[in-house]
Amino acid sequence: MAAFRKFWSGLGRLFRKRWLEITLPLVLGFMPIYESLEGIGLMNRLTRLNFDFYLETFPREPDTTWPVKIVDIDETALAEIGQWPWPRSTVASLVDRLTAMGAKAIVFDMVFAEPDRLSPKLMMAELVKADRGSTIDQTMVDSIMAGLGDNDQRLAEAIKASGRVVTGVALDNAASKTPAYLPKRSRIYLVNKNLPAGGDRSGDPGLWKNYNPVEGIISNLSPIERAASANAHFNMNSGVDGLVRRIPMINIFHPNPDISASDNEGATYYPSLAIAALKVGADDRRTQIIAETNSKPDKPLKLISNGKVFTISRVYFTSLKVGAHEVPVRENSELPLYFSGHIGPDPENPYYEHRYISAAHILDGTTPDEAVRDKYIFIGTSASGLKDLRSSPLDHLIAGVEFHVEALEQILQEKFITRPDDARGFEMLAAFLLAVLAVLVLQLCGPIVSAGLAIMAGAGIYGLSIYEFKASLLQIDPITPLASLSLAYLSALALNLWRTQSEKAELRGAFGLYLSPELVDELSDNPERLTLGGEIREMTILFSDIRGFTSISEQYDPQSLTKLINAFLTPMTASVLSKRGTIDKYMGDALMAFWNAPLDDANHAANACRAAIEMTALLGPLNDRLEEEAKAAGRKFLPLNAGIGMNTGPCCVGNMGSEQRFAYSVLGDAVNLAARLEGQTKSYGMAMIVGETTRAEIPTFSTIELDLIRVKGKLQPVTIYGLLGDETVANDPGFKKLEQTIDEMLIAYRAQNWEQARALLNEARAASEAIADRLPRGTKCEVLFDLYDGRIAEYRSNPPGEDWDGVFTATSK
Which of 27, 221, 450, 595 has the fewest Cβ atoms within 10 Å of its own Cβ atom? Predict the structure, then answer.
């Protein structure tokens, strides 16, 4: 429980700190969820395109026995038989021929709504009507008319004689309000699975009230539709992009849905061509078309009829049964089409010769009976001039009849694209969780880890969708979760980058004046290495000051003095920054710097000493330039010499100051000692003095021990050293000789062996004079030797006593 509270507490702190980077990406991540729930906009389009990709990549393998074929009124048939429409007698001959060849069912993807204008009887009637002004023997006309054939009647007789013909109807709101004849064999029996067993579960449960039934219908001539074994609709629902992906297995007709919505007047339910073909082609003529429905009592539907509002139970389709075939459908009875790999009436299509037969070849007898026997035959047209071409996800234009063929083929193969009832909930939950996790993981783990996890999660979701489609034809939408993940992650990443750049700019503004550009870049790239609150660190502190600055300043006016100080501090600052140091502050002609903060520096003592050596060396060229300027101005030249004190020890470093103004600075005894050591450089004639802790960190540098001193303000004495150079200088025999001689002199001095100490002091003078031209600028060893010469003389006259510890107590800073 404690760990749980700690987790939520940490999450709360994260939210308060980065509320914008969390809130805004989550809002953007929820947008795809909203669009998907509404079924609008870009998400709907992307989802369609993704499943189009699945259909193209994993197409249905057709049944190689090719149980469904198309008798095509193609360009060849039009060229041989004549332009469309053909005489109904020719169509009747086509029906006769297909029946004789043993077709299981003959399905017309067309409607014969108008009388055949090429029928002889109709043509004779038109001639008589046009010649009303002349004297015509009506008896003779009647005799001639009785002997003429009626093409429509001829087609009706052929259809009736076949006993296996399905005629098509088109539902259109602008068409006739009279329903088409629905033979008993093609009627649909509605069964509500949600009603209790033993009750009346059949009949129209008011299903049509849940949809928008079509108010008009284009039907066949009465003799033709009554002769057919079944009448079925050939409507197809195109998407907003004009592509046909689904076919309604049932279409509902009601001439007055608004007026009748409040009563129990039923509607007419027409099966699709594919369902009617199954029924007509069934071996058992008692086979029924059963539409199973379900209801949602907990989700009632409100309707308005005759100005009144009333509530009905929501009823929807679940499946259709035709004999042994069960067809799962969407709630609106639509069947998602699972297209085979090659569709369209292109002779180069490898399926073309198996699926398409020209109507001309049926009529001229060149097609063998085996090509038709026991096949479902759909009669349609692929001729471009007859304008029955539709767009599919796989091909731009294919014959409309082929969509119905595809539907029947997949029903026969029992290959259905299904969508689980809880798929939408799973997709929305996945989208929500991915958006939340993407944002939180990015904030907690950074861009690299979170990017890897986001890619893995996205690939997993998409891979699962592909696997389920390929293995089980389950339609699971990966686009919404991926869109939520992408929008949430990318927006959070962009905001994080914005915040990072802002923080970098802030860091550059805060540290750019007292850190080197390289360190600022390093700090900007790794801000986590910065601790701006107070912390204790082992650090090396440097103080630098111009010796005799008061006398020098008297030679300059304020503007020139400012220029002089800037000329001095600029190269000194550059040396500090180039050695990974941090400028703490400028105090007139003095400079304070430190190492090992804000960034770690394992070699902070060595880097500080290298900076000091370089600072001392840079005074030579600077003085040369200042001397030339002094001569040009007729001013007395006083050279600049700096004293530098350095010490290493634990310090408190961080932002210090008031709420109104603060600075990144350092405090501690080590800082105070470094300042005192800088003050002692003049007393010992050294350009650079380091404390004993710093000396311990630079064993390879050239140093000489100066004294055991108790500086002002401290009780404990410290050993101080003069810094003469780096490793190269330390290996010089002359410097080694000087260091060794001074060490021996100090041993004799602290042992109160004054004569030996004086003798060694003289040797040290000689060793110093031998390397005088190589000593750091401003280093005057004779000052050190004179200091000890005076002490030895004093102690010889006034011995310090046996309890003397050799410590010198400084009385000045």
Answer: 27
pLDDT at 194: 61
- Cβ-contact 386, 117 below 8 angstroms: no
Domain ranges of the chain: 2-53+429-506, 68-413, 512-516+534-809
* DSSP code of residue 136: -
Residue-level pLDDT at 484: 85
**Contacts by 583-591 with C-beta closer than 8 Å and gap 24+?**
583/513, 583/514, 583/515, 584/514, 584/664, 584/665, 584/666, 585/663, 585/665, 588/549, 589/545, 589/546, 589/549, 589/565, 590/543, 590/544, 590/545, 590/546, 591/542, 591/543, 591/544, 591/545
| Predicted confidence (pLDDT) per residue in 463-483, tens digit | 999 999 999 999 989 988 888
Between 527 and 161, the higher pLDDT residue: 161
Numbers of helices and strands, H then E, in the chain: 26, 27
Q: Give the DSSP per-residue string, 631-667.
A: HHHT-------EEEEEEEEEEEEEEEE-SS-EEEEEE
- Give mean pLDDT, residues 670-687: 94
H-type helices in 309-399, by residue range?
A: 352-355, 359-363
Q: How far is C-alpha 339 from the chain's CA centre?
A: 32
Was domain 512-516+534-809 assigned CATH 1.20.58.220?
no
- Of how many residues is the chain composed? 813
Reported pTM = 0.65
From CA 259, how far away is CA 280, in angstroms rounded? 35
The answer to whether the CB of 609 falls within 8 A of the CB of 703 is no
Nearest to 686 by CA among 625, 776, 766: 776
* Nearest Cα to Cα of residue 726 among 582, 608, 591, 592: 608
Residues 6+ positions from 585 with CB-CB distance below 8 Å = 591, 592, 663, 665
Q: Per the structure block, which two tokens stand in for 767? A: 């060793």
CA distance 381 to 390: 11
Q: Find residue 657's DSSP bridge partners.
A: 662
The sign of the CA dihedral 348, 349, 350, 353 is negative
Coil, helix or strand at residue 253: strand
pLDDT at 454: 86
Q: How many CB atoms lie within 10 A of CB 380?
A: 29
Helix (H/G/I), strand (E/B), else coil: 231: strand
Assigned token pair, 645: 């004190």
- Neighbouring CB atoms inside 10 A of 675's CB total 18
Q: What is the pLDDT of residue 200?
A: 41
d(CA 431, CA 461): 10
Beta bridge partners of 192: 293
Best CA proximity match to 401, nearest among 271, 236, 214, 240: 236
Asked if residues 645 and 542 have their Cβ atoms less than 8 Å apart, the reply is: yes
Tell me which DSSP letter residue 574 carries: H
CB 192 within 8 A of CB 205: yes
pLDDT at 9: 59
Cis peptide before 213 (omega within 30 of 0): no
Q: Identify which has the larger pLDDT, 87 or 530.
A: 87
Residues 451 and 762: their CA atoms lie apart, in Å, by 72
Question: Which DSSP category does 61 fall into?
Answer: P
Q: Where are the beta strands (DSSP E) in 623-757?
A: 642-657, 662-667, 688-691, 702-710, 718-725
Q: Which residues make Cβ contacts (< 8 Å) with residue 344, sequence separation at least 6?
A: 352, 395, 397, 398, 399, 402
Helix 558-578 vs helix 604-633: crossing angle, to nearest 10: 150
Give me the pLDDT at residue 424, please: 83
Whether 22 contacts 443, CB under 8 Å: yes
Task: Read off the amino acid at residue 344.
Answer: G
